[in-house]
Amino acid sequence: MITVLHVTETPTLFDWAGGSAAFERLINAFYDRVEGDELLTPLFPGGVSDEHRTHVTAWWSEVFGGPAEYSSELGGYHRMVNKHVDLGITPEQRYRFASLMSLAADDAGLPDDPEFRAAFVGYVEWGTRIALANSQPGADIVQQAPVPRWGWGVAPPYQPSN
Ligand code: HEM
User: Where is heme bound in this sequence (predicted)?
Assistant: First the structure.
C-alpha cells in the first residue's frame, strides 16, 4: 500500500509580504507619512533619518520571520525598548501610529488578503501598546527579552491542497 503525504508549508509573514524589499517600502512609506503628521512629528524632531528607517526595517523583518539582523547586529530587544523610554507616548499618538501603519501597508503594496492584514494589524496593535506602556515616565520595563517572532494566528493563508 502506498501512502501519499501532502505537506504544505505555511510561509512566513516575511516571505508572504515580499521579503526585504517589501519591508523597506513599508517602513519608508510609514515614516514619509509620519513626517507629515502633526501628532507624530514632535516625537521625531528634524525628521526620520535613513539610519532610523534602516534599523526599524531590520526590526520588522526579524519579527515577521526574516533575517535576525536586529538581534545579531543592532542590540536586539534591549536596544529597541530603550529607544522608547520616557517618550511619553499618548493614546492619541499610539492610535495615529497604528493607523498610519495600516495605510502605509497599502502605500507599499503589501498583500491585502484578510489573513495577512489581520496578522499584520495584530502585531501593530500589540507592539504599539507595549511601546506606549514602556514610554511612560517611571515605567517598569523588561530590559531583556527575545525579539518576538510573529505568526499567522488563527488564520494562515488558504492554500488549496491541489
Ligand atoms: C509596533 C510598534 C512599534 C515598533 C515595532 C517600534 C520599533 C522601534 C524600533 C526598532 C526603534 C529603534 C530603532 C533603532 O534601533 O535605532 C524605535 C524607535 C522609536 N520609536 Fe518605535 N516602535 C513602535 C511603536 C512606537 C510608537 C507607538 C511610537 C510613538 C507614537 C514610537 C516612537 C519611536 C521613536 C520616537 C523612536 C526613536 C527614538 C530615538 O531614536 O531617540 N514607536 N521604534
Answer: 55
CA atoms of 95 and 88, how far apart (whole Å): 14
- 8, part of any domain: no
Range of the domain at 93: 13-134
Query: How many domains in the chain?
Result: 1
- Local confidence band at 6 (pLDDT 50, 70, 90 cut-offs): low
* pTM value > 0.95: no
Does a structural domain hold residue 149?
no
- Residue of 34, 53, 87, 93 best suited for mutating to test ligand 1, as the one with most atoms within 8 Å of CB: 87
Q: What contacts 156, CB < 8 A, 6 or more positions away? A: 10, 115
